[in-house]
Amino acid sequence: MNTAFQRLQRDRRGELLASWLQHLTATFDRHHPHPPSLDVQREVLFDALLSTLTSGAPENDFRVDPETDLARHLNRLIAEQARQLANPSDTIGALLALKQLVARALIDMNPQTPMIEDLQWLDRVFDGLSLFAFKSFVDIRERLIAEQSLSLLELSTPVLRVWSQILLLPLVGVIDTQRARQITERLLEAIALHEARVTILDLTGVPVLDTSVAQHLMKTIDAARLLGSRVVMTGISPEGAQTLTKLGIRFADVISRATLRAGLAEALLLIDRRIAPIDEARPS
Fold first, then answer.
1. Do the Cβ atoms of 98 and 153 come closer than 8 Å?
2. What is the pLDDT of residues 110-157, one digit of tens each?
3. 85 within 8 A of 30, measured Cβ to Cβ
4. CA–CA gap between residue 170 and residue 264 (Å, rounded)
5. Of 59, 81, 95, 266, which has the fewest CB atoms closer than 10 Å, so is most exposed?
6. What percent of the chain has pLDDT over 90?
7. Distance (Å, rounded) from C-alpha 199 to C-alpha 208?
8. Helix (H) or strand (E) holding 233
């Protein structure tokens, strides 16, 4: 046991915790929402930190074990801050603020005899925690971004049933390899589910038509054909048409119409349907 930190934990725990929470409220919390649970998480982390300082000897090395209570409490706090779009500098700043408070308290307890070894142990612990916190913050933020990107990807590829046996897939944004795979999977599932004979691919919202996009679309069209669905392509801009022509890209056996309205009319004809005006003459 480290007697200096043990005395600190016994005699000044409440004072240090109050000072740290007050500092965080004045410095960091004004920029982000402050849920009531945040102070509870900070207090739990504070006690875990003091226990770590108390249980270690100044001559020991320090490395954060992800399986310890200290690492788990720190990860919970980081995850909460990442969801609130806080910066990693906020987490590191909170740890450094606590380090300064603890170092000042150590010196105050023995103003005539500075405890160099204890201060060095304090440095090693907080340096390790800062590195661990930064890596954890980056990992958690990347995971949240990946989850949000997947949700946006699913929302950006809706397959709509506009008529019996007719599906509409409006494409918006850039089509890369990952998104093309998702488009194909969702479209094939919808074709099989609704027994669609015609699929309309609307490209009005696709900003760039190049070789890569064309190859992705051709693979999607070929897969739809294997399930027995004809493809009607709509919404290609004049600039996109010129680009595809210059590149020598042709969609063989694919019906193309300038507008979604014309594409829907063509799709209805392919299933022997058409849109006709209602006869205004009704029997009295």
1. no
2. 765 657 888 888 998 999 899 888 888 888 888 877 776 666 665 567
3. no
4. 12
5. 59
6. 27
7. 21
8. strand 230-234
pTM comes to 0.54
Reading phi first (left if > 0) and then psi (alpha if -120 to 50, else beta), residue 272 is in left
DSSP reduced 3-state for 169 = strand
Instruction: Give the per-residue pLDDT at 194.
Output: 94
For the chain, the straight-line distance linking the first and the last C-alpha, in angstroms and rounded, comes to 100
Q: Position 4: which residue type? A: A
Residue 223 CA to residue 184 CA, distance in Å, equals 8
Q: Which two tokens stand for residue 181?
A: 């795979």
Asked whether 203 and 171 are in contact (CB, 8 A), the reply is yes
Give the tokens for residue 219.
């693979």
* 220: its two tokens: 């999607």
Q: How many CB atoms lie within 10 A of CB 196?
A: 26
Short-list 138, 102, 136, CA closest to 23: 102
Q: Read off the pLDDT of residues 166-225 as tens digits, 9 standing for 90 and up.
A: 999 998 877 877 778 888 898 999 999 999 999 999 998 888 888 888 888 888 999 999
Q: How far apart are CA 160 and CA 22, in angstroms?
A: 54
